Amino acid sequence: MNTDQPGAATDKAADRVTGGPATQPMGIRQALREIRKGIVVMWWSFFDWLAAISWKALLLVSFLSLLLAGILRHPTPVFFLIIVSIIIKVIAGGKRRAERIATEATKRAETEQLGRTVLEARMEALQAQIEPHFLFNTLASIDQLIQTDPPRASRMQQSLIRYLRSAMPQMRESRRPSLGQQLDLCGAFLEIMAVRMEGRLQPVVSVPEGLRSAVFPSMMLQTLVENAIKHGLEPKPEGGRLEIGAEVVDGQLLVHVIDTGVGFMPKAEGGVGLANVRERLKVLYNGRAELIITVPPAGGTCATIKVPYEIAPA
Amino acid sequence: MHPVSAPTAVVADDERLMREQIIASLKEAWPELLVVAEASNGHEAVAMVQDLEPDIVFLDISMPGLNGIQAAQALAGRAHVVFVTAHDQYAISAFEHGAVDYLLKPAEAARVALTCQRLRERLKQAPDPMNDLLAQLSQRLGGGVKPREYMRWVQASVGANIRMIPTSDILFFRAEDKYTRVQTQGFEALIRKPIKELIDELDPNEFWQIHRATVVRVDAVEQVSRNFRGKQVVHVKGSTEKLEVSRTFNHLFKQM
Prior knowledge:
The structure holds two protein chains of two kinds. By secondary structure, chain A is of the alpha+beta class. Chain A contains nine helices and five strands, in the order H-H-H-H-H-H-H-E-H-E-E-H-E-E. Chain A has two domains: 5-118, no CATH class; 129-308, Heat Shock Protein 90 (2-Layer Sandwich), CATH 3.30.565.10. Helix content of chain A is 63%, strand content 12%. Chain B is of the alpha/beta class. Chain B folds into two domains: 8-140, Response regulator (Rossmann fold), CATH 3.40.50; 153-253, CATH 2.40.50.1020. Helix content of chain B is 29%, strand content 30%. Chain B contains seven helices and 15 strands. In chain B, strand 14 (232-236) and strand 15 (242-244) form a beta hairpin. The longest helix of chain B is centred in the N-terminal third of the chain and has 14 residues, at 16-29.
């Protein structure tokens, strides 16, 4: 630690002492106050220094001071000072060191937390990429509807605007997202896809109103919904149903995306999307959340995200 | 040139609005062209072209059943092909180098007009089956022959459901009587597939067999120690179970 701290403090105090009375005779009281302040600073600096230096260094300094005092023929006060120092170091040193270790640990924990936050932000940005395929196909559909069914074109464009507002990373709000927000985003996406795929996509959202305020990470539900359409329903010529549901079981919030599509291929690469959801859950919840994929008895795929149930601050 | 009969076309896209858009823009650019049928997937497109023998077929690349490239391969030069796509970077670069024409969605009037003009020229010749180009494209888009695929998910019944466990979550497999136990950090499940069959389907870079009855995921191995009998024992992250290495597999954990 800083062993030159006491020196600096002394200099500062000395400045004040010389500067104080020279200014005005009226300011003697003020000068005294300054001196007292200086002494307090000096004392704590001395205390810090005592706590920080090693026993070896303290003994060496004591020995040298004793020698110096001996030469000046006044060893007794120095001897007392040394005894007091040793007592202070024994009593207060441990506490002071513990404080320092605690401060360092806090700093390390903060750095770690920061690292996690940065990692999560990067992964979220990755997850949030809007598929160019989706965007261009939707714009082409709107273009066609402008010719044939302008009111419908307008509705579809509004859905697209709502979707982009929440799906673009720079548009996203920084506070903790709620399940309700995520459902609105998916709702806009599903409205667009239902217009495009017509009878081949039958979306059903059955989430109890009370669960909309639960905390739920951003863009994960969207990834599950996009996957269900892209890998489940779109490859199936006749299409099928897509259902979003949510429930609370034993203090855990379970959000399901169930489709009646072609089903999961054991050899298919899991896709960047699902791997990303899994990684983000690990970083965000440290093992208290998971992504579960099951095959319902009737076929298709059921993807469930399980996170601790918390209410989002309003 | 005598127009014997009006040129005909089939338009294939899985989304009706997309088909309508293409048909509308074709009507503008080439009023004589007769769209004789619309297909909503690759199989339908192939069947319609075989049935109706149109001069031209417009094929969307991403369609259920057969995708556009596979449909073109199946047609093997029965009609002039124009691919339609919203955004396929690979495909577009391939088209630009080949003799194939393509349209980007949403189709712009000027671009459609250019395509129609080229098609009028091309109709004088027989359609090119484009074998090499299509083979190359199909491989790029993931429809062709792929390197060997390994198991990425294990299907295991947990209660009444079948659960898909990603291989990256699995710590190890262990033979137990008639079953194989799949162990992850949070739970275990039983599957019927024996270790002997599993090992053939798992990626050898991801999983190692260390015993007749045990397969471990390499990334999950924390350390290898020796037990009191001098046998190697594998410790796995996230599990207290210790896995014995049989002598046949000792070479896997040699010191470097």
